Amino acid sequence: MCRHAETLRTLGARVVLVSFGPPSLAAQWLRETAAPFSLWLDPQRKAYRAFGVERSFLRSWGPRTILTYARLLLSGRPWRGIQGDSSQLGGDFIVDGRGVLRFAHRSHDPADRPEANVLVRALGETSAEAFRR
Amino acid sequence: MTSPKVTTGEVAPDTTLTTLDGDVVHLRQAWRDGPALIIFLLHLG
Predict the structure, then answer these.
(1) Which of A45, A56, A57, A52 is nearest to A18 (CA)?
(2) A15 close to A7: Cβ distance less than 8 angstroms
(3) What residues does each domain of chain B span?
(4) Is B44 part of the contact surface with chain A (CB cutoff 8 Å)?
């Protein structure tokens, strides 16, 4: 999503990252990734639960996930090991300016995330709909 | 029994979170001025 930051600005869209990790680790992660987005913390996972983002040990450690982690390690990406609950899955949601949910993707496993261009397109459609009103 | 999940077309849930500076924010502030993409991260590692 970082490479789409300018497009997102043009669309008037905001990206908020939500993490359940501790503040120090989250701040370090944000520095290392240089993601130009807000990072808000949800240590009790109230928002995760409210949006129906699940936890699953079995789905979090399936073959596809292990392969993904292996590829990341082999790519030379620095890795500090699993920090926090490895069973917590992720999700991607788009909410319009009226507070209505327009896109929802709850990851089936850690590697299950929509392509960035899918999210950008959905944001574009949400923005366009707002202008038509 | 799990509670029903919010679906598209419904009002998005709002909860309080914390910024890296320790300030409390409402998730609804994300979409206050326009559409927002909310990305729930996995563990940080």
Answers:
(1) A45
(2) no
(3) 12-40
(4) yes
Distance from CA of B3 to the nearest CA of A (A): 9
- pLDDT per residue as tens, chain A (133 positions): 888 888 888 888 999 999 999 999 999 999 999 999 999 999 999 999 999 999 999 999 888 888 888 888 898 877 767 778 889 999 999 999 999 999 999 999 988 999 999 999 999 999 988 777 6
Q: What are phi and psi of A80, to 5 degrees?
A: -95, 5
Residue at A118: amino acid letter? V
CA distance A64 to A128: 36
Q: Shortest CA distance to A17 belongs to which of A98, A93, A89?
A: A93
Look at A14 and B34 and tell me if their CB atoms are within 8 Å: yes
Asked if A94 and A52 count as a contact pair (C-beta separation under 8 A), the reply is no
Say whether pTM exceeds 0.95: no
Residue pairs spanning A and B at CB distance below 8 A: 173
Phi/psi of residue B20, nearest 5 degrees? -65, -20
Q: What is the ipTM of this complex?
A: 0.93
What is the gyration radius of the CA atoms in chain B, in angstroms?
13
**A120 vs A91: CA distance, rounded Å:** 15
